[in-house]
Amino acid sequence: MVQDMLLESHGVNPILIARDALHEYDTEVRVHPCDWKDCRMHIPVELKQVSKHLKQHHGINTSATSEDTEKIACLWSGCLDTHTKPGNISRHVLTRHLGVRWMCDNCGSSLSREDAFRRHSLERPNCQSANVVVNYGDGSRVIDLVYIDGGWSATQNVMLI
Ligand SMILES: [Zn+2]
Ligand SMILES: [Zn+2]
Ligand SMILES: [Zn+2]
Fold first, then answer.
1. Is it the case that residue 10 has pLDDT exceeding 60?
2. pLDDT for 71-112, tens place per residue?
3. Contact in structure between 97 and 76 (CB atoms under 8 Å)
4. Residue 30 and residue 27: Cα distance in Å, rounded?
């Protein structure tokens, strides 16, 4: 079984997802490739998952919040941002690199934070009963967890590690 798995994965480029990132997903998960340095994994598209990934796989203390925390460079491929506080880097990656935006379904306003939508709907009388719609960037895809058997899904080319 394991040999078959390795054989099948040899020569292809499987979508690698951390097994422990998937505990809270039952049927499907939306993932995006991580372009941080030479990372080859995919991250579930959610703020806390991005934070966990950056901490576990890239050694970043994403919970640092202090004002005088040393600023760090974002090492995402092609990113020129060199002055991000560690505590802000997860949100930066989620919105800038994973392309997540929150959209008002009434007026179409696109917002970079979910809490900005609450403010938006309070400030605009027409949007008071509007709903927020999450927009995902082009590079993400939905993985069907039901078809992952023994950590491997040949049809989806997914491997859990
Ligand atoms: Zn990564
Ligand atoms: Zn960046
Ligand atoms: Zn609106």
1. no
2. 889 999 999 888 788 888 999 999 999 999 999 999 999 998
3. yes
4. 11
Give the Å distance between the CA of 90 and the centre of ligand 2. Answer: 9
Ligand nearest to the CA of 35: 1
CB-based contacts of 102: which residues, under 8 Å, 6+ apart? 110, 111, 112, 113, 114, 116, 117, 132, 133, 134, 135
Give pTM, 2 decimals.
0.85
Residues lining ligand 3 (ion), CB within 5 A?
A: 104, 106-107, 109, 127
Per this entry, what is the length of the chain? 161
Do strands 41-44 and 15-17 pair parallel, antiparallel, or not at all (unpaired)?
Answer: parallel
114 DSSP assignment: H
Closest CA to 90 of 114, 119, 60, 110: 60
Higher pLDDT, 90 or 6: 90
49: closest CA among 70, 30, 76, 77? 30
